[in-house]
Amino acid sequence: MFKKILIANRGEIALRIIRTCREMGISTVAVYSTADKDSLHVRFADEAVCIGPPSSLESYLSIPKIMAAVEITNADAVHPGYGFLAENGDFAEVCTEYGVKFIGPSAEMIRKMGDKITAKETMIKAGVPVVPGSDGLIKNPAEGVKIAEEIGFPVIIKATAGGGGKGMRIVWEASEFEEQCELAKKEAKASFTNDGVYIEKFIEEPRHIEFQIIGDQFGKVIHLSERDCSIQRRHQKLVEEAPSPFMTKPLRKKMGAAAVKAGTAINYEGVGTVEFLVDKYKNFYFMEMNTRIQVEHPVTEEVIDHDLIKEQIKVAAGIKIEGKDYIPMMHAMECRINAEDVYKDFRPSPGHITSFHSAKGHGVRVDTHVYAGYSVPPYYDSMIAKLICRAQTREECIKKMKRALDEFVIEGIKTTIPFHKKLMLDERFLSGNFHTGFINEFDLGEEEG
């Protein structure tokens, strides 16, 4: 087992990893930018190293600075968390060259799944269903229109190096294609320094359902059931739950087998997520694979009663996976609490937190790095907490979530708590009858008080 792990991340996920390491008797090193000097992950780690100014490029995305911190602290492993360098093949490769264990898949696995065209080709060979689309990158708009007409409109243009909804455009008819293609390429270039795009059939009113998988160094891959992530805004998830209210036993069996096939096809090591689009007829299609721990991993932890970070560390240390594919017997739900003003188009709302009281009680969990007196910096992702509830049934879980949201108080900044409160009262959400476009039809109403 590792003696010291450096966490190449910040915020709640860094704190989450530190807690598990403490329970496992592993020392931890936090890295931080000057903007995060007062963050809890800095306080709770055994050692902390400042790696630069607030800019991510000069701190959390700087491989040389992080590796310098590894060297001076003599860490023998690096946990990348999610975001930043978590799915950066170069970073994984550098760690290996330094003789430091990257807690995650190999550089080759990351690259194979990180490029969406390569990932799609890999899934086709593995026999995993994929969305109909172009065979590779489109060379020009004229070629794109021809392919789109063969597939049938609507289609979606996607950046091959994409993520977070960047470089994506839905095209409803041929006359719009050239303009939308250029916009997608420009955004992709700006976001990923790669303007390559491809085309897929646009699945109308889909569910976004993902399967948690874990693979060890000995070729075994299992799945830990699904999460429904269909409540999202501009491709950014807001609420996740397990099991999916849309799921049936036969569908879970088919999708779970496909997720395991996906992991097995690349000899996957570590925890990962295979994401699918599912249409209203329960046809499912591979969308992408995230080769890291997910923001929403607590949802799965709550229904399987296992620490996924611990499992991730054990696999990285060469310990075999025990157990088999899992079917959830409980229901869990996560609401992402972001520092955003939901009444002003979810505009980021950084600033000083004057009062903070997190929800508590049976079946209620809060993962956060903030506290009363903490100042939310404007430089990073706006998520400041995750509220997770667990109960015997979906109905009970929603009731618990309502109570927990009422109890959750954050003052001094705007948050997404008002959105979640209203969502928990929405009849369509309560019935489980929703899809990825749900938020476009959701009436938030007027701001109270």
Q: Your description of this structure?
A:
With 449 residues, the protein is an alpha+beta fold. It contains 15 helices and 22 strands. The chain folds into three domains: 4-103, 3-Layer(aba) Sandwich (Rossmann fold); 132-201, Dna Ligase, domain 1 (2-Layer Sandwich), CATH 3.30.1490; 207-441, 2-Layer Sandwich (D-amino Acid Aminotransferase, Chain A, domain 1). Helices cover 33% and strands 26% of the residues. An eight-stranded antiparallel β-sheet has the order 13-12-9-10-11-14-21-19, sandwiched between helices. Strands 3-2-1-4-5 form a five-stranded parallel β-sheet, sandwiched between helices. Strands 7-6-8 form a three-stranded antiparallel β-sheet, with helices on one face. A hairpin with a 5-residue loop joins strand 12 and strand 13 (284-290). Helix 7 (141-151) crosses helix 8. It is globular. The mean pLDDT is 95.
- Helix and strand content put the structural class at alpha+beta
Say how many strands there are.
Answer: 22
Biggest sheet, spatial arrangement of strands: 13-12-9-10-11-14-21-19
CATH architectural group of the largest domain:
2-Layer Sandwich
Based on Cα principal axes, name the global outline: globular
Beta percentage is 25-35%
Strand-helix topology:
Elements: E1 4-7, H1 11-23, E2 27-33, H2 40-44, E3 47-52, H3 63-73, E4 77-79, H4 89-97, E5 101-102, H5 107-114, H6 116-126, H7 141-151, E6 155-159, E7 169-171, H8 177-192, E8 197-201, E9 207-215, E10 221-233, E11 236-242, H9 249-265, E12 270-278, E13 284-290, H10 297-304, H11 308-316, E14 331-338, E15 340-341, E16 347-348, E17 351-352, E18 355-357, E19 364-368, E20 375-376, E21 383-391, H12 394-407, E22 409-411, H13 417-423, H14 427-431, H15 438-441
Helix pairs in contact: 4-5, 7-8
